[in-house]
TrEMBL record:
Pfam families: adh_short
Protein name listed in UniProt: SDR family NAD(P)-dependent oxidoreductase
InterPro entries: NAD(P)-bd_dom_sf, Sc_DH/Rdtase_CS, SDR_fam
Top-level taxon: Bacteria
Keywords per UniProt: Oxidoreductase
């Protein structure tokens, strides 16, 4: 199994969920921009599950040497890479903040996903599980730069799923709503609309095993986003969402 964004609480919860379900992996490849933190998780699953891992540095803010990944083959990829960025009005026009949001959520991530998608295509087997966001369904004033990057990622995954279907590779797009993670720490989230990493992992694993194409972590978000998508633009532009 390949994990992109292995310091994400959702990634780690998914790994544990899969191992608790007695899934078998020769190696779990943990891609991370922080090897020291990831190695602690690697040791944890080695002790708890006797699972072999390999921690691999991948920083989407830097140039990537893909030859270092040539030896890696897997029929399951899980990606929870993401960066919310600074959410203040002052940071809206900050160029560095904008570039990081777009690069980490889309521009630098897509080539990495393509690299592993091509490997799965050649072996004619595999599943790619990628977390996008409900924020990508309609641009809102509170997070439209992040949302636009996630919208691009969602469109990419839809096209990739279409392209890989005949190649026997499946793509699952996951759209979390509010998540109780380090990335959202301090935000005023409605607890009824917020999932824990463990709840998310269980829902994603179920969607993966049932072969879903698109999954919301909490079903209520499908209703919420249906409403938001269908608000007329002349009304929507006046709302503070």
């Amino acid at each position: 199994m390949i994990i992109l964004g292995s310091n994400s609480e959702i990634s780690q919860a998914f790994v544990e969920k899969a191992l608790e379900a007695h899934e078998k992996y020769s190696t779990i490849y943990l891609f991370t921009s922080n090897k020291e933190t990831t190695e602690k998780f690697a040791k944890h699953i080695d002790v708890k599950f006797l699972q072999q891992t390999e921690v691999i540095e991948l920083d989407l803010r830097k140039e990537i040497d893909y030859t270092k990944f040539d030896h890696i083959n897997s029929d399951l990829l899980f990606c929870a890479t993401g960066y919310l960025g600074e959410g203040t009005e002052e940071s809206l026009y900050d160029q560095k903040n904008t570039e990081l949001i777009i690069d980490i959520n889309y521009a630098k991530l897509v080539p990495v996903l393509n690299f592993f998608a091509s490997k799965m295509e050649r072996q004619r087997a595999g599943t790619m599980i990628v977390l996008s966001s409900v924020a990508g369904e309609r641009g809102r004033q509170s997070n439209f730069i992040y949302g636009s990057a996630k919208a691009g990622l969602t469109a990419y995954l839809s096209g990739l799923r279409n392209y890989l279907f005949e190649k026997k590779v499946h793509v699952l797009t996951v759209k979390p709503g509010f998540m109780d993670t380090k990335m959202t720490e301090g935000l005023p989230l409605n607890p009824k609309l917020t999932a824990t990493p463990k709840e998310a992992a269980e829902g994603i694993y179920k969607a993966y095993k049932s072969g879903k194409n698109v999954a919301y972590v909490l079903p209520v978000w499908s209703v919420i986003m249906l409403i938001i998508r269908n608000i007329p633009e002349f009304i929507f532009k006046k709302l503070k969402l």
